[in-house]
Specification:
The complex is a heterodimer. Chain A has 19 helices and one strand. Chain A is mainly α. Among the domains of chain A are: 149 residues, UbiA prenyltransferase (Tetracycline Repressor, domain 2), CATH 1.10.357.140; 125 residues, Four Helix Bundle (Hemerythrin (Met), subunit A). In chain A, helix 12 runs antiparallel to helix 13 and helix 17 runs antiparallel to helix 18. Chain A is globular, with a radius of gyration of 22 Å. By secondary structure, chain B is mainly alpha-helical. The longest helix of chain B is centred in the middle third of the chain and has 43 residues. In chain B, helix 1 runs antiparallel to helix 3. Chain B contains three helices and two strands. A two-stranded antiparallel ribbon of chain B has the order 1-2. Classes of the chains: A mainly alpha, B mainly alpha. Chain A: One of its GO terms (cellular component) is mitochondrial membrane. Chain A: GO terms for molecular function: protoheme IX farnesyltransferase activity.
């Protein structure tokens, strides 16, 4: 458990690097580590961006470029703060040459962020031709499909797959991840297609491709169809029909239930939490082919996590939601908002305790995860009591590292699907089987 | 936008509605279908512009009134000693946000319905136009081969 505490102390968002564990060989480690560092980097900048934009009042065009540059300075500082921490990661998986590569990509990304935001603010004052440029297309489609969110969804699905008590099947894993990713791209594109005038009016979302006219609605729908149909087909035919059905249902839930409901009733938050809970269930069913208690537990953990995460985030966006006509608990029922967040933080403790009861993890899991669950519950309680910006931000940032940490700990405490006596035989059988991680 | 351009042009966000205006290119050989599409888009933009400009103006106005009345109740002025505009903190504003949202709920419901209808119609028309253009191009290709 030493390295787990090490990671926790860095305070950096970590992803379930269960992928790194399962893949043998240096090449696999390089791929997963790059994936992991990319996600970590963009996660910090994305959320920092979000919150900085929130702090900005509705300002005139003159002021905003300066504000944005100021935010960039902050973001750059954050990015550079991460790189000194990288030595901690050395024991995990990298050699010094890869570290250099990572730092190069880090600075390249921060440059890109600077130029893209600068370009964004310049664009705002110019007339642009509505012509689709092919070299812009990948970037536009990435933003249309909310590629970062999709990556997170895929990683929760991978966590579900990894926790399933079956031998690890690489092809199945890749197909399930790809299918889930495509389904998520489709759902996100349709969501943006439905929300153009509302997105234009909110600070957080006003730079989306459809809002800026960089792509036509027709193309957005075609893109969504061309991601969704192959994605679901891949899941149904390449993995199993249950996973495909769950994927299709999730797309439907997100686009046809959650998106319109956002403007009709506060119940949308609960629907959204279900949407977030389904990917790990899909990962599990992809591995096992059936919906067992373990899948539901994992889904339950993600479901409960959504509430502190989203309620804390929405606390600072109340003005935009009110003006935009979004029915969110933070605006209409603020007390309920905070109570629900706290309730679900506590539920996480309960769910973590249920995991060994259902034979998914050993009893080490509730013990090791208790500190982080208590911490997020404590922040949830502070949010409930204080109801101010700083407590909501603390809770939100905590939720960002809490989930990956929890999933990581869960994976390390995963119960081997073999009997304890057969562990010796397993070791002699070679690669291609799930390995139980032994903590020092 | 330059006169020789054959594309639509999209501009910076409007000050009141936050929506981007579009100048449509009218090709000389525009078919009735294409004209229907263009007019639908123009009408949609005009509707959206009207709605959001009015809505946002109402929001800032009511917000000002709310702040004024609250400050008055607290016995403060709009501008404090240093000439800075006095504001209420987020918790005090929360009452206003809740109230504004509930007051405008029906207006939003109506707008949502209209927006979804318009969005689907326009996208469907775009699909039809694209299909017609593609068929026309294929026919032209076949003729020239």
């Amino acid at each position: 458990g030493l390295f787990v505490w090490h990671l926790k102390n860095t305070g950096v968002r970590q992803l379930p690097c269960c992928l790194a564990r399962l893949c043998r060989g240096a090449n696999d480690r390089l791929i997963t580590f790059q994936y992991f560092s990319f996600l970590k980097r963009m996660y910090v900048t994305q959320y920092h961006n979000d919150l900085s934009q929130r702090a900005k009042p509705k300002s005139e065009a003159v002021v905003s470029p300066f504000r944005e540059l100021q935010q960039l300075e902050q973001e750059k500082k954050v990015i550079h703060k991460i790189s000194p921490i990288s030595p901690v990661q050395q024991p995990l998986s990298e050699t010094s040459s890869r570290k250099e590569l990572r730092e190069k990509t880090l600075t390249a990304e921060s440059e890109e962020l600077v130029t893209s935001v600068r370009a964004g603010s310049k664009d705002d004052r110019q007339w642009k031709e509505m012509k689709l440029r092919l070299d812009d297309l990948p970037g536009i489609l990435a933003r249309l499909s909310k590629i970062k969110l999709t990556a997170l969804v895929v990683s929760t699905a991978s966590a579900g797959f990894a926790m399933a008590p079956v031998p690890f099947d690489l092809t199945c894993f890749l197909l399930a991840s790809l299918g889930t990713g495509l389904a998520s791209c489709a759902a996100n594109s349709i969501n943006q297609f439905f929300e153009v005038p509302f997105d234009s009016n909110m600070n957080r979302t006003k730079n989306r491709p459809l809002v800026r006219g960089q792509i036509s609605p027709l193309l957005a729908v075609c893109f969504a169809a061309s991601c969704g149909v192959p994605g679901i087909a891949l899941l149904t035919l390449g993995v199993n029909p249950l996973t495909g059905a769950l994927g299709a249902f999730n797309i439907f839930l997100y686009t046809c239930c959650y998106t319109p409901m956002k403007r009709m009733s506060i119940a949308n938050t609960w629907v959204g939490a279900v949407v977030g809970a389904i990917p790990p269930v899909m990962g599990w069913t992809a591995a096992t082919g059936s919906l067992d208690a373990g899948a539901l537990l994992l889904g339950g953990i993600l479901y409960s996590w959504q509430f502190p995460h989203f309620n804390a985030l929405s606390w600072g966006l109340r003005e935009d939601y009110s003006r935009g006509g979004y029915c969110m608990m933070s605006v209409t029922h603020p007390e309920l908002c905070r109570r629900v967040a706290l309730r679900h933080c506590l539920a996480l403790i309960g769910l973590s305790t249920a995991a060994p009861v259902l034979d998914i993890t050993t009893w080490t899991f509730p013990v090791v995860s208790l500190p982080i669950n208590l911490y997020i519950s404590y922040l949830g309680f502070r949010f409930y009591r204080d109801a101010d910006r700083s407590s909501s931000r603390k809770l939100f940032f905590c939720s960002l590292w809490h989930l990956p940490m929890l999933l990581l700990v869960m994976f390390t405490c995963k119960k081997s699907f073999l009997e304890k006596e057969d562990k010796g035989d397993l070791l002699s059988e070679g690669p291609g089987r799930a390995m139980e991680i032994r903590l020092p | 936008p330059p006169a020789h351009s054959r594309n639509d042009w999209i501009g910076p966000p409007d000050k009141h509605s936050n929506l981007r205006p579009v100048i449509f290119y009218v090709p000389p050989e525009e078919s009735p279908l294409e004209r229907r599409l263009r007019e639908a888009r123009q009408e949609a933009h005009a509707c959206d512009q009207r709605f959001w400009a009015r809505h946002n103006r109402a929001f800032s106005q009511e917000k000002e009134e709310f702040i004024y009345s609250r400050l008055k109740a607290k016995g403060l002025e709009m501008r404090d000693g240093t000439g800075q505009k006095a504001t209420l903190n987020a918790e005090e504003m929360a009452d206003f946000y809740k109230d504004f949202l509930s007051r405008n709920f029906r207006k939003h419901m109506q707008y949502n319905r209209d927006w979804y209808k318009r969005n689907f119609t326009i996208t469907f028309l775009m699909g039809q136009v694209a299909l017609v253009r593609a068929l026309r191009w294929l026919r032209w290709k076949k003729k020239n081969v």
